[in-house]
Amino acid sequence: MITFNINNTFSENLPSDVVLENTRRQVEQACFSYVNPKLAQNPELIHSSVDLAKNLGLTAQDLKSNDFLQIMSGNSVYPNTKPYAMNYGGHQFGNWAGQLGDGRAINLFEIQQNNKQWTLQLKGAGETPYSRQGDGLAVLRSSIREYLCSEAMHHLGVPTTRALALLSTGEKVLRDVMYDGNSAYEKGAIVCRVSPTFIRFGNFEIFAARQDLKTLTQLTDYTINQFFPHLGKPSKETYIKFFDEVCQRTLEMIIHWQRVGFVHGVMNTDNMSILGLTIDYGPYGWLEGFDYGWTPNTTDAQHKRYRFGNQPNIGLWNLYQLANALYALVEDATPFETALETYKNNFDKQSLEMMRSKLGLEFKEASDIQLIHELEETLLLSETDMTLFFRLLSKFSVDNPKRGLELIKPAFYSEISNEIKEKWLLWFDKYALRLKKETLSSTERSKKMNAVNPKYVLRNYMAQLAIDKAEEGDYSLVEELFELLKKPYDEQPENEKWFAKRPEWARHKIGCSMLSCSS
């Protein structure tokens, strides 16, 4: 039998739902509801993360065992544990949606390993009291995307939840991929997600909205004691410190998103981790053509609320909602306003530093802001692949700035006009002059730039290719991409084929350009 060092702090310290039936309902004065996963008909392990497993105290052999398969598929409940779904609300696309909760996620248990706390959660393991009209299941398509992206983001250095295992259930699940009335059956799947906790902004919002101060206090105190103990014992002063740190962590996460060109696609407050981790990989995507207005979410296509360039603002808006929830514990708006103002100021500072690092600038010059602004304006003049551009830029030579245009040519999706060429040449001249003020050698600069500008990211078309093969029972591309994305900053000459623009056939293909929230 696989051995886990069980330490269930969430379910043992917070109030549970008094109703034990697994029926859809409003759950009052409770942080979670006990519920068992649905039995999978014919589970099969598709892939597992050996690196993450080691952090959890598991061996490579454990991952191949029947015990592991049965636990990860939800067919077996680990001894002395009681799976549960969490209760939370949230603002969706700017509107209060009321109770949401874990509609298709079931927390198995928490473990303590090497002085770290981890929660193991199954996504797609069946309905819960929070499933509303859904079936609580997930399909292979979305599960592959979540599994690959969780681990890819970790290796990119972006704060994120992790993924331990990807399984097929042997069942068919009915889904309407594009919400256009064309439902079809797809292969069912489960992802085991791993995080210190899956508490979200929405966990606090639901109790504040219901004016349930008692449960709100219990949840906040638990969160501080368990995950922010360095802030001190819970008190009004500590609540403010807690909010301030959540602001800092959220900003750090979003700065990383902007650095690698990641667009979350659905930044609702129920998709915002209290630990500042990227959570809930639905209609995400990486920028291909550099475009502040791009969103990967078809549901967001009209208003583009969650577009790339608006992610920092949405982070701030979501933090306002968390502040409104925590206000009831402090009853003083000023410290929250101060923390939110700090977020705004720090974004400008940290964004500038991030862009300096992408351009290989060590020293700080006042003119850097203008140089970066002109770069972004020039990038927007034509469809220019963000990942390719910044990676290729590391080879730029100050001794031959005119060669810069030839250097970045592979990043253009189409031929550029002479007018745009002139703008690029002008920018490269300014960039060369700026670099001459630096003391790093070209080799040192290139190395530093390549440490923050990834060569390989999980483009949507790549994930779709893996999905297409997996639908036929061939999981080789899942494995290939998983290994590729473990070293996104390395050259990997054997994988050069993945260092390329999105193919033209993928421009408007479902799953390769925009995606819906459907899973």
Structure commentary:
- With 519 residues, the protein is α+β, with helices and mostly antiparallel strands.
- 40% of the residues lie in helices and 13% in strands.
- It contains 17 helices and twelve strands.
- Strands 2, 6, 7, 8, 9 and 10 form a six-stranded antiparallel sheet that branches.
- Strand 6 (105-113) and strand 7 (116-123) form a beta hairpin.
- The longest helix is centred in the C-terminal third of the chain and has 26 residues, at 334-359.
- The radius of gyration is 23 Å and the shape is globular.
* Overall geometry: globular
Distance between the termini: 33 Å
Count of β-strands: 12
The percent range for strand residues is: 5-15%
Secondary structure class reads alpha+beta
From the alpha carbons, calculate the radius of gyration and give it in angstroms. Answer: 23 Å
Element string (H = helix, E = strand)? HEEHHHEEEEEEHEEHHHEEHHHHHHHHH
Helix content: 25-40%
Number of helices: 17
Largest sheet: 6 strands, antiparallel
What's the overall average pLDDT, rounded?
96
In the predicted model, the low-confidence regions spanning at least 5 consecutive residues are none
